[in-house]
Amino acid sequence: MTSTSTSPITGGPRTDQALRPGSRWLSPILLANLVAEVAIVITGGLVRVTGSGLGCPTWPECVDGSITPTIDQAEGIHKWIEFGNRTLTGVLGLLALATIVAVWRWAPRRAMKVAAVTVFVGVLVQAVLGGITVLLGLHPATVAAHFLVSMGLVAAASYLWIARHETGAAPLPLVPPIVTRLAWATTAVGGVVLFLGTLVTGSGPHSGDADEPARLGFDPRTISWLHADLVMLFVGLVVATWLTARLTSKDADRAPGRAWFAVLAVSLAQGVVGYVQYFTNLPEALVIAHMLGATLLVVALTNGILALRRR
């Protein structure tokens, strides 16, 4: 479905693909999908800090002969925590499927369709990867991969939510190309920060395995400070991106500056939580808060990249 209108930029004619009738359902579905992607990270963090990663010692069953936890299981409360996380994965799969249907029916752009399929396939990959993680006794490589895939799915779900009302018109850059490249470089460094964060967690007392807390060979103090050093570099890049986006935005558009200020605010909050949890011996509540901050940082970075252009 197309509609012809006047471009707000050039004043000339423009043909855009419009959202289709019934699209009022698009936003709620995409928002629910994003919230669920964030929630699965938080419940995964709860599994980790409580040492419940093997609360259901088999997969896909919770215990041999039963999909659900049984009364006589020795894992106690841990079985319910792990089973709750698995159950949310099922809900996430249904929402991802609903997202595909909604995007195909009501969103006009191919990129959104690709992102919707990516989320659905990613949820399936996560389910299998979660099973492999259990079967391998919470191997650090699979635990880290499990988290990083979730970050990718949060980014894709964020893109779907932020871009849900965009038309099929070609994007109009709002900042010079060098600012866009700086933003992408900053985002890439942010990805490395997240990766190092998984090494920090895998080397500390909340690595996910109640019997063997430190499953990686890194010294927790050394890897923590390496992570902190890269965070400082990242924050510096965020400040540079924010200032350049704010000062060079075309047509006095404030969206790029506002979006990157949000990235800066989330980054600083994450830094504060990270330092506090380090110097207070990693209390569980702050570990969960730090994981929530990581997902919010991914959302903010996705928004920051998209805010550099207008459709």
Automatic annotation (TrEMBL):
The pathway is:
Porphyrin-containing compound metabolism
Which Pfam families does the annotation name?
A: COX15-CtaA
Q: How does it sit in the membrane?
A: Multi-pass membrane protein
Metal-binding among the record's keywords?
A: yes
Q: Which InterPro entries match?
A: COX15/CtaA_fam, COX15/CtaA_HemeA_synthase
Q: Give the matching PANTHER family.
A: HEME A SYNTHASE
Superkingdom of origin organism: Bacteria
Predominant subcellular localization, coarse grouping? membrane
- What does UniProt list as this organism's lineage? Bacteria, Bacillati, Actinomycetota, Actinomycetes, Micrococcales
Q: Where in the cell does this protein reside?
A: Membrane
**What organism does the record attribute this protein to?**
Ornithinibacter aureus
Protein name as catalogued: COX15/CtaA family protein
From the record, give the transmembrane residue ranges: 29-49, 88-107, 114-137, 143-162, 182-203, 223-247, 259-279, 285-308
The keyword Iron-sulfur belongs to this UniProt entry's keyword annotation: no
Q: Where is this region: Disordered?
A: 1-20
Listed A to Z, the keywords are: Cell membrane, Disulfide bond, Heme biosynthesis, Iron, Membrane, Metal-binding, Oxidoreductase, Transmembrane, Transmembrane helix
